[in-house]
Design goal:
The protein is an alpha/beta fold and 262 residues long. The chain contains seven helices and ten strands. Helices cover 26% and strands 22% of the residues. It is globular.
Length: 262
Amino acid sequence: MQTPDGQRMDVTIHNTVTPLKHSLDISNQSDLGDLLLQQESAEDLGRERYVETPQAFFWKMSQFQASPGVLNGIFEIASKYPAIVLDLRGNPGGAIETLQHIVGHLFPRDVKISDRIGRKESKPLLAKTEKKPYTGKVVVLIDSKSASSSELFARVMQLEHRGTVIGDASAGAVMEAHHFVVAPGSDSLIFYAFSVTDANLIMADGKSLEGEGVHPDETVLPTAEDLAAGRDPAMARASELVGSKLDPVSAAKLFPFEWPKL
């Protein structure tokens, strides 16, 4: 290994292997319980996380799956603050309906997110404004793993001049797909699923984000030294833009990384 200051060393890593089952039988209560625990763990990692500070409301959104009721509650809290910092780094996207609700909470008018160009028909993808939209400042964080709805949201914020986008270029994976779940078999079922792309999304500037991604207004990336020291320069810059001015170490502690529970 080589340290950030150039020193090299040999390191022996001792690992622990935990054998897991190659398949689960959902007719078996023990296996079914394990499956439910895995699902609960995934749902916990995907929960909405937020931190309130005097200057801003910091929101970590892991995926676009929140219900309208949850979003209404979050924006009711956020309405008390002059700025929102929405962290979409690592967010793979999710439900279009969730995207529409969030956009609707941030604009005093209806907004066209994109034109949906399908195989058989084309139609606009609209977000209708909520009764009491948030009017404060908005900063959005993205990175190379921000995909789908995350990218659409960030680009709408840019095109409508509603917020500042900080971080790295996004994934460039926005085409809509239809998801099919299949369970062949009789006594024993084998579950699998596949997706088929059925629409491209064209933004208000006439361009698709597919294969291109969203380029942030300010590119801010952590260095190797930042990662080793537990610093988050992108979040620190976002906090500076909203007047919070967190140092990179404090910024990294807002939303510490969480490992999946096996």
